[in-house]
Design a protein that fits this description.
Layout: E1 2-4, E2 11-17, E3 23-25, H1 26-29, H2 33-46, E4 55-60, E5 64-75, E6 88-96, E7 104-108, E8 112-114
Antiparallel strand pairs: 1-2, 2-3, 4-5, 4-8, 5-6, 6-7
Length: 116
Amino acid sequence: MRGLCTNCKSFQDIVYQDEAERPYCVDCLGLLPEAQMMALMSFLYATVPFSEGDKVSVKAVGEIFEGTGHVTEISFSPEQLASPVVPMFHVVFDDKAYPEVPDSSWYPEQCLVGAE
């Protein structure tokens, strides 16, 4: 469907209408704030260094070795003290460095190193 694009004011093929029924062409679609936010979130999700099942070595506070385990869950939720920029990783321990280490806990990327 062709029409007048709300953003560039040119007669173009319309590929999107927002909730207020304003038409946008393909060139202007990427300029919308929600499209920019989705592109940013896609980039952030692509840069997550560990995935579920990865074996990791854990150092609490980045210095105290707690043992090795595997990542069972990744969270971007504030409930686990995470954010879209700083994800948290739930680690279940296979080998603990000392008995006081919990069976599982949440850790930021800075406390984890890939292990084999």
